[in-house]
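Support case: user asked for a sample of complex input and structure output to validate their parser. Sending the pair below.
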Amino acid sequence: MNVQLYVWQRLTAALMAPLVIVHLAVIFYATRQGMTAADILSRTQGSPAWAAFYGIFVAAAAIHASIGVRNILSEWSALSERRAGLCAIVLGAALALLGFRAITALVLT
Amino acid sequence: MSEAISELSVSLWRGGREGRFETYTVPRRQSQTVLDVVSFVQRHIDPTLSYRFACRVGVCGSCAMTVNGKPRWTCRTHVSKVVAKPVGGRLEIGPLENLPVIKDLTTDMAEFFEKWQAAKGVFAPSRTRRDAIAQIRPDTPARAAANAAIECINCGVCYAGCDTVRWNSSYLGPAALTRAWTLVNDERDGGNAARLQAVAAAGGCHACHSHQSCQELCPQALNPTAAIAGLKRRTAAAYLKGEIKT
């Protein structure tokens, strides 16, 4: 890992720390209140705040996880740094795609 | 030399990269060091045994070996410290790990010192002999941080015990990075731009996982993990300010 990847990974970690806490709090609140999927969707659909919250979360998670996986692959597998990097980009793109697709379903539909 | 109090069975690595442990019986003595055991085998049992030492007092850093699975400086490691039982204990001595074995207990330290150079571990003077001698206050934070590697004897124990070196052959290693951190904090040094650039690249300080084996194993009780953490902070700040590139 070089300094650029290090800074991105630490910044996205710092960004995600409060987001994870809010995310967990929302899960606890929704389950303890016995909210149904329809109840949740009625609050999230059309909400720019939830779109921004989870949009930032997905972007940060995709970047953070792909840098970590790149590191694991380059240290623990026979892949070269370049190939490990390519695999990590594919993983990051997949995470971002799945995440943004879920946000679209949560907020837009 | 003190009288033998019993006998000790010791297994020594024989051969190069491919080889085997061979067992020898040596006299067990009071205050005996691991280096004493190796020297006894070489002088009295098998003169073809290869190993490296010089000062025998923990200054030169040349006698490090793997002792019962851990890298140690053998001249300052008493047998009683590593062999639990006074009689019938196990002593297994091999070459340092993470370095190519030349023969028996000697390793090729070239890559260790090449990485020391790659981390810009050489002092870069910023004054000439015609300038006044730099006045460095001993109580400044930078001067205290510069202590990081001053007592390093380059024995290679931290390098041999480092998991990251084992996994990542391009990693510069604890000793080289600690030396770099000392120079980063040396107010007289003028080579920091190149040094920060060197340690911020792939294989530099950011590859460290902070396992702290170096800190635990360092015979001089230095803390390379803390020095590397300092480099991580300093290079990240320099990168964000645009002072170094990737």
